Amino acid sequence: MTVTAMVQAEAVHKSFGRLRVLNGIDLSVAPKEVMCLIGPSGSGKSTFLRCINHLDKIDGGRLWVDGELVGYRQSGDKLYELREREVCRKRSEIGMVFQRFNLFPHMTALENVIEAPLLVRSESRSTALERARTLLDRVGLADKIDCYPNQLSGGQQQRVAIARALAMQPKLMLFDEPTSALDPELVGEVLDVMRNLAESGMTMIVVTHEMGFAREVADAVVFMDAGAVVEVGAPRDVLLNPQHERTRSFLSKVL
Amino acid sequence: MDTVSSESLAPGTGPPAEAVKAIPVRHPGRWVAAAVVVLLAASAAYAVATSPELHWDVVANWFFSSRITDGLWRTIELTVIAMAIGIVLGIILAVMRLSPNPVVSGASWLYIWFFRGTPVLVQLLFWFNIQLLFTSFAIGIPFGGPSVWSISTNTLISTFTAAILGLGLNEAAYMAEIVRAGILSVDQGQTEASQALGMTRLQTMRRIVLPQAMRVIIPPTGNETISMLKSSSLASVITFTELLGAAELIYSVNFKTIELLIVASIWYLIVTSVLTIGQYYLERRFARGSMRELPITPLQRLRKLLFTFHAPPPAPPLLPPGQLGGPR
Fold it and tell me: Do A94 and B193 touch (CB under 8 A)?
């Protein structure tokens, strides 16, 4: 092995009660790779994403981020659950963007972005403010820094959410259907920000229904169904020349 | 075309083309109801104000007497301290209640069950008579071991402490439920977003969840404070001379019962009004981010009301001549 994979999944299983959501996921995401997860709803895409930063606990298999096990520490052949501090430190290195933005409504855009660097990283206020201004400028919201989330459009809120995640200088960004809650005309501005981020070399895992984005930006596209990976490959292969019947029938409905 | 038809109207009696002047619907019932209410209120006020048995000069004389104002201060002191205990303990109990540890959440449940399930008067009497149960209070080895430090219960629990314990511990049970409802009202996505940024459970609660829960917590807490101000009068039963207790002591000597109850009532109303105003501004403060524009303050509303009274009524929509639909 030459390069440590940014994310490495081996036979990852996850159940909610008796419902099996992930049924043995094997995947590998290289540094600087952009991977898009597609598939019908309920196929486990979002759950897999949430397992990567330990918002959901896996029940079986192994999951590594940047060479370290997620949520556990291995000593000999035993696994030890990590303490909250450790879990939080690892989460802080992974950015996540949600379908419904989840901005903090009682804080302005700027306060949203500086909150975690101040609280989690104990950065100095001036450092945090400077980076927050740069990031908000980068997502095109330099003039909105003092607005509260409900004074912003959906697309603007999602761009603040991206800036908030980037403020922690993550080594990996997870996007959970970032454009699904947006009006069609606002989707473009968010995808543009994500495209720029991908070009800057960020490792990204994107759960999306935007096939155009997947085709243009992704290095790899994964089609998932019923908690399992059906097909992995270059976007051209998976989207235009799918090998599996299930993939073909899904794509015929969404394209 | 919409032209006024001249056949159905006598010349000159048709409506002017510029404006509709409709006679509003009359509501005679409203006038009757209003008259009855005003009459009843006025006669009651007259009866009270002119009663020969009611001496307003006595009310005025006792209103600022130091015995009454001392009682008022003790009422306020008791309310503030008991509410402070209630809020702090209530937050702790609410967080405990939401804890994944069944023993911790069970303990909180049991506390709320007990203190909400017994009358606050019983609890006051219980704390007042606690020395019957424990003659002294000691710190040392539990289960009958030797003690390091001990104090007689009578010294430790004064009537004031008993009143604070009775009211404060009872209040905590109610506040716990209010805070818990507030915490549950905050979207789960907020917790997830904070955790994804690497915040601990405590940081998430303190910086993200509680500030948002405040919006839901404050209105009922204002209610509880006002309610506490009034239930603090129960402390007079355990010989604590707060506002009502002071009034009672005075009228038990001079028999001006109604006058002194009026004095106490007016003071209660004054403090309650001040609290209501305070609650309004506090709610406004925590509404940041949930409303695009903050609601106007009563002062601004008054100014606006005066302004609109002086302003001319809104002009009716102007229609071009000949466009007005007359009866056809």
Answer: no
